[in-house]
Fold:
Amino acid sequence: MIEFDLKNIETPVYVVDKGLMEKNLKVLSQVQHAAGCKILAALKGFSMYHFFPLMRKYLSGITSSSLNEARLGYEEMGSEVHIYAPAYRDDEFDELLGYCDHFVFNSFSQYEKFKGKTLSAGKECGIRINPEYSEITTDIYNPCFTYSRLGTTLHNFEPEKLGGISGLHFHTMCEQNSDTLERTMEVIEDRFGKYMHRMKWINFGGGHHITRSDYDIERLIRVIKHIKEKYDVEVYLEPGEAIALNTGFLVSSVLDVMNNGMDIAILDTSASCHMPDVIEMPYRPEIIGAGKPGKFSHTYRLGGLTCLAGDVIGDYSFEQPLEPGDKLVFTDMAHYTMVKNNTFNGVNLPSIAISDGSNVSIIKTFGFEDYKRRL
Ligand SMILES: Cc1ncc(COP(=O)(O)O)c(C=O)c1O
Structure:
């Protein structure tokens, strides 16, 4: 829970707490030690590089999805740098070779195209497989949905082209527990087990909600050890969300209150710009001190600053009526927020701050130049 003084804080601002971050990192580090695996931070979920020195103490490196993420990880974290992208660009590949140690290719055609350069630079190459098994029910987050472009299915797998490949990679999970991993692994072993014996490493991708309170860590460790021992491979995990889960807040202010059949409050933030997963996923973020509609006496629809009719964060109830100037604190706002936000409608980006439990320090602010430079 945050204890910092809300009164003097300028909004909107993402506040990420160092103590909460370190708590997550310690859990991940314990998993690495107990299971004998390596955990990489997926920068697509959380790239606030202020924390990279802290993350370096506990994790084995980063994984990236683009030249920019690879470079950020290389320059600011400096340990193992992995990369996977559905396809690589010719004009970026040489630069990538300077940053990354492990390259995961989406298809054998991509591998054939880049393997000469990659292997002669002494880098490790892997293939992303699509086991065609996932328990994700939202298609937009399901890498195994029909006609997926993500990974090579068994039908498209070309064992005769495995020369030079040292690892297999899969990513089929999202916010899931280790029972899902266990079932997924049974399918993967069944379909790709005979190739796993020939590998040096297997990358289990992301989607492991390891730092959630009900996550079954013992089962995760069992699955990792089973794969390590049976196939004599190194195991990598590359969670994004689990790194920063429940470590950040988005503090916003009420700008206006109106009624159009129900009470509505307009905030100085936006679902569309500052927490896009609220619309995309979709999900309802928690607000400290607020409840579901009707739980407390005063229920409001909370809306954002843009002209998008659907820029609505959700309906919440409060003990007291909301008034302009009131501060609202959204929880769990560190991952998939800063990395995805945008300036639609010219809405400014929230500042970025760190907290040490009691003090908040702003480390980044944004303004007109940031908006203008992108256009
Ligand atoms: C290939 C790959 N690895 C890792 C991740 C991180 O997943 P998460 O943040 O759900 O742990 C993703 C997320 O989309 C991904 O596509």
Observations:
- Residues 260 and 301 are 10 Å apart (CA to CA).
